[in-house]
Amino acid sequence: MNVRDSEHMIAELNAQEGYELTDNPREADLIMINTCSVREKPVHKLFSELGGFNKLKKEGAKIGVCGCTASHLGKEIIKRAPYVNFVLGARNVSKIGEVIHRDKAVEIDIDYDESQFAFKDFRTSAYKAYINISIGCDKQCTFCIVPKTRGDEISIPADLIVAEALKAAESGAKEVFLLGQNVNNYGRRFSGDHEKVNFTELLRRVSTVEGIERIRFTSPHPLHMDDEFIEEFARNPKICKSMHMPLQSGSSEILKAMKRGYSKEWFLNRAAKLRAMVPDVSISTDIIVAFPGESEEDFADTLDVMRQVRFEQIFSFKYSPRPLTEAEKMTNTVDSEIGSERLSRLQAYQDTILDEITAGYLGREFDVYFEELRSDGYVAGRTDNNIVIKVKGSEEWLGKIARVRITEVSRLVQYGEIVA
Ligand code: SAH
Description:
The strands form five sheets. A five-stranded mixed barrel has the order 13-14-15-17-16. A four-stranded parallel sheet has the order 1-2-3-4, sandwiched between helices. Strands 5-8-9 form a three-stranded parallel sheet, covered by helices on one side. The longest helix is centred in the last third of the chain and has 24 residues, at about 335-360. It is globular. It has helices at about 1-15, 40-55, 70-75, 75-80, 95-100, 145-150, 160-170, 200-205, 225-235, 250-255, 265-275, 295-310, 335-360, and strands at about 30-35, 60-65, 85-90, 105, 130, 135, 155, 175-180, 215-220, 240-245, 280-290, 315-320, 365-375, 380-385, 390, 400-410, 415-420. The protein contains 13 helices and 17 strands. By secondary structure, the chain is an alpha/beta fold. Among the domains are: about 1-105, Methylthiotransferase, N-terminal domain (Rossmann fold, 3-Layer(aba) Sandwich), CATH 3.40.50; about 365-420, CATH 2.40.50.140. The structure holds S-adenosyl-L-homocysteine. S-adenosyl-L-homocysteine (SAH) binds near residues 286 and 322.
């Protein structure tokens, strides 16, 4: 989502101001840092990065801070780093062309919404297009700062999304990546009088776009994975068979304290339905350990879900208290060392599962969409079910889909050879 927000700002700056991208911060007229605020660490990193850029920037160059940390710290950023020229919240990115001309501007209003509906063209990748389908988030997960930084959830009208997919296909991209904090809640609220379309119907419409062969999306919420959605996912050949199911915790008690709205049993039921209906589906997840009140038993429930679902990929985090959240006020916190220990135990367990999963890939064939040239004489791409595969080859493969046999496996990347 941050990549898409950055693309959006780059597009505005290109179109209105004639800026071009540079890899060299010393020659930049404008340096922008697009930030996250989900955990505390990136916030600290921001200020050290800012200091570094301030030292090496050329005379008169501007520095801007954008994204969720901008939303949440606002003018505090300029207080702590007075050389910062403007602060632009995650929901306000389309105002970029305006704030660069107002020194010390702070634009972080989360009621501001129509902005994100007007798309300007800029894409980081020629082969896939990120498309926002909603902004903000209506969930109230007690650990999460996102609803406070990105505001209420508003769906972008379906016809605009389909038009974006069409534009992407016309420019040669075979893949679209639909983005939202809670994509399968799509359609609950639009900013005006727009046709009510749910996420499943949106997927159907996007898949009618000729030239688009692959549709990905993130993040869906396990609570809203109804049968209709899972069945469309299974049935529709354009929808990539890779599903992100953010678990957060395997303990029903902790899930309740997190206000996730589902239980361990519901999650397992949905994952089992997916596995049963979609052969070769890969399921990824997010897990937080050491949420306030998490006992050794609760943690064992999380490991148990991992044992039963056998996720192909896990993003795991130690709980980080965030301002403006309900959980920040909870007093039954878990000792930080216990949290670190649980995190390493969880990651070690996942490694053993992953070694078994990847061993099973050896010798198998998959269709790979090549998107990236790697410096060491390889091209890399993804299978429909999100396995990253590297193959010896050059740019002639970029943007093409080819049949690949896996010849060497590891936890992060698989190697293969083209068979057709
Ligand atoms: N709406 C997205 C969440 C984006 S944040 C979704 O539901 O997938 C990405 C992940 O960061 C979350 O899924 C969660 O696992 C993690 N996260 C969020 N807040 C956190 C916190 N306070 N401490 C640790 N991890 C957190």
